[in-house]
Amino acid sequence: EHIVVSGCALKKDLTRVTLKHVPDQPGVVAQIFSVVGEANIVVDDIIQNTMEDGTANVSFTVEHGDVADLKIVVDKKLKELGGGSAIYDANLAKVSVVGVGMKQSTGVATKMFGALAREKVNIQNISTSEIRISCIIAKADAEKALKAVHAAFDLGKA
Amino acid sequence: EHIVVSGCALKKDLTRVTLKHVPDQPGVVAQIFSVVGEANIVVDDIIQNTMEDGTANVSFTVEHGDVADLKIVVDKKLKELGGGSAIYDANLAKVSVVGVGMKQSTGVATKMFGALAREKVNIQNISTSEIRISCIIAKADAEKALKAVHAAFDLGKA
Ligand SMILES: C[C@@H](O)[C@H](N)C(=O)O
Ligand SMILES: C[C@@H](O)[C@H](N)C(=O)O
User: Which of A61, A74, B66, B101 could, after both became Cys, cross-link A44 (CB 3.0–4.6 A)?
Assistant: First the structure.
């Protein structure tokens, strides 16, 4: 049987920007991330869902740092775009399972979600790829979440 | 200067499930993906945003296949969970930029979004990792989107 999951990781210094109900039209995210980049803000993950009602929700994480600058450029751009509101949240952590071929391996994500659920850790954001499944959770849950995922995948053994 | 982007890819056979307003409580996604897995449905990407109002929006893609089975298990689980509605959409494509170290390289995502914006391609979902930035778009935009991204990153040259 393949060993698919090779490790887990925890990131505690991050700020999440949640943009609710931005206009779901071409050019919107190009403009938003363009001004964020011009302000020299380094973006970590980007997640977008469409609400299929003319609006979309975009979340992105940045390294802790100058949230004041971030707010200025994002709020200004949302005004120009004529829609959407921004919530800034720094009381977070990102717990990840790292491995290879994780999509073909059905059940890896479910196992991670189950481990967090058993510890009553609420999952706020999810982002997946072949090599990483990440969940954003409350900072207070960070250590408990890491332990739970570590145990669920037997990562303690060499 | 680093060559960060090594290629782009297009996936045209996928179905997206958009779950709007699911209860934002521990155990919810563990249950949803558990029943999806039990029905032998292979999940591709999972994206979740929190609405910070007690509900969350979860999108996931599956290989084209038995959407009928998928609907049965998902609709049943949402009823049990007491909240949320599901939209199933197969008229989609996923265009991706593939590379390494793409997060440190500010501007790769913005460049991709800009390329799609100039072609008036609407981005419905976004998911990013260090090795891949993926955008879900309308199937009708697939070829135009791939060409635009290919050109933006000069991928035609050997
Ligand atoms: C919401 C945003 O992604 C928009 N659909 C765009 O293409 O830019
Ligand atoms: C919405 C869903 O992710 C929920 N927050 C959970 O932890 O399962």
Answer: A61
8 A C-beta contact, residue B52 and residue A125:
no
Q: What percent of chain A has pLDDT over 70?
A: 96
- Complete DSSP assignment for B68-120: HHHHHHHHHHHHHHT--EEEEE-SEEEEEEEESSTTTSTTHHHHHHHHHHHTT
Spatial CB neighbours of A39, under 8 Å, sequence gap ≥ 6: A69, A70, A72, A73
Instruction: Give the per-residue SS3 of chain A.
Output: CCCCEEEEEEECCEEEEEEEEEECCCCHHHHHHHHHHHCCCCEEEEEEEECCCCEEEEEEEEECCCHHHHHHHHHHHHHHHCCCEEEEECCEEEEEEEECCCCCCCCHHHHHHHHHHHCCCCCCEEEECCCEEEEEEEHHHHHHHHHHHHHHCCCCCC
Residues from chain B contacting residue A34 (CB–CB below 8 Å):
110, 114
Ligand 1 center to residue B4 CA distance, Å?
24
Q: Do A20 and B110 touch (CB under 8 A)?
A: no
**Cβ contact (<8 Å) for A30 and B127?**
no
Radius of gyration (C-alpha) of chain B in whole angstroms: 17
Q: What percent of chain B has pLDDT over 70?
A: 96
Pocket of ligand 2 (CB under 6 A): A 117, 122-123; B 22, 24-30, 48, 56
